Amino acid sequence: MAQAATARATVGDSEFDRDTALTRREPGVYDIDLSAGWTVFGAVNGGYLLAVLGRALTDALPHPDPFTLSAHYLTASRPGPAIVRTELVRTGRTLSTGQASLLQYDEEGREVERLRVLASYGDLDALPDDVRTTAEPPAIPPPDQCFGADDAPAPGSVSSPITDRLMLKLDPATLGWALGEPSGKGEMRAWFGFADGRDADPLALLLAVDALPPTAFELGLTGWVPTVELTVHVRCRPAPGPLRVSVTTRNLAGGFLEEDAEVWDGAGRLVAQSRQLARARLG
Amino acid sequence: MAQAATARATVGDSEFDRDTALTRREPGVYDIDLSAGWTVFGAVNGGYLLAVLGRALTDALPHPDPFTLSAHYLTASRPGPAIVRTELVRTGRTLSTGQASLLQYDEEGREVERLRVLASYGDLDALPDDVRTTAEPPAIPPPDQCFGADDAPAPGSVSSPITDRLMLKLDPATLGWALGEPSGKGEMRAWFGFADGRDADPLALLLAVDALPPTAFELGLTGWVPTVELTVHVRCRPAPGPLRVSVTTRNLAGGFLEEDAEVWDGAGRLVAQSRQLARARLG
């Protein structure tokens, strides 16, 4: 049985799959119990929420894969029961467009909307192989030269439930904030995978783009950086194995900042791009 | 009267203002006649359409300024009558969120949705002055060393109605495509203003991010590059005077490409950022 205990989780049979599983209540309407396993400092991770809505749309739309999702975050989600309502906006030959909302109940039992998404879906396997990209993968040292939560000097000090579910190894060049010496540059880079060994699929990319510590930490800010809007483009089905994620901020101004993420697979392909607008608490 | 004839148009009294003017039919629902003046090769410009929905939301939402709009383009708009339907999704203290759809009628008189937008609005004048940006404005030669439609060797050859309404001066370094010698780099840079001298306001930024020729032209592609999704972040109220716009593509692959735009004002501030996912016709 030792073999079973160390077996890698697979797509369809993993923590991420179980925690994004939806029960169809009626066509286009789903129930889900938001897991406490994807929280950080008590807040449910925005990438996990996006993956939940992305999975609902995979069921509700005629095309299988997320190509682009734009999410506006409205109120803070809590672990526990939630409802997903979807709408088919348009069906086209190569793309279909849908909308999805995540709702929870307040103390009086009224529905409160947490997150609304517009999304266009297609078929990643139907895309031509043409690549004329000029983008280069981020330079990140090998995983054994990067740092995860397990490597923290005080074990558990930076741990949160989501940390336990991810294999996140941060580039030491973007880790100054953890030592009290932020670089002043809006950069964060890491290797990304699931702790249980599940490979990434397009839905996992929706989590990957919002899984790193905020770039604001390297800009000398502390505390929560809530997402206002997050748009992801999935460009390619990722190859098995760990992913490289690079997040960059060019403009921190007026109490807001953008975070641009790129996700690269082991085959050297740019598999996802994202941009979010987040609020900064300027000290 | 010569003075009146050469007077600069102003915000509120210009072609752009007249062509984005909406008539409120009932609360949250508006009529508009889409102008043929913002078409290029027969298609209504996506930035103009975004400005129309942005203006409707300025009326429908409690906050005055667009902070972030995410648009999914569904079907091709035509000049002529259209309806805008808006929904107030959430009202917060510093931000409110809304949704807007642009619809037109088909031959049988049925409504067809052209474009759907999720947007969060705030008050640009209420933002703190903090700027910790590391971004640098694009290096574009002065306008008199850049090239507009008037400078084309065959007058009118690259003219389209939108060209007549804009003051668009392209950086010669990104103009190789017009001479049959595309650079192979996904870059397009230009000075942007209105031909009638109207200064840019936040709504004009929604047009500015989608007004340049496609970066795909410099990558050696020709023909139409339809937008699937376009998200804009307005970061600052622009100073009067011409704007600098830089558009970059890093990843052309699988028949799609992203276009990242930055808009800088004369005060050296990054006033807007955008990213779109567009379809490429690979030759």
TrEMBL record, chains A, B:
Q: Which Gene3D superfamilies match?
A: Acyl-CoA thioesterase, double hotdog domain
InterPro entries annotated for this entry?
Answer: ACOT8-like_C, Acyl-CoA_hotdog, HotDog_dom_sf, Sec_Metab_Biosynth-Assoc, TesB_ACOT8-like_N
- Pinpoint the Acyl-CoA thioesterase-like N-terminal HotDog domain residues: 36-120
Q: Which Pfam families match?
A: 4HBT_3, 4HBT_3C
Q: Which domain of life is it from?
A: Bacteria
Q: Enumerate the spans annotated as Acyl-CoA thioesterase-like C-terminal domain.
A: 149-278
Report the protein name in the record. Answer: Thioesterase family protein
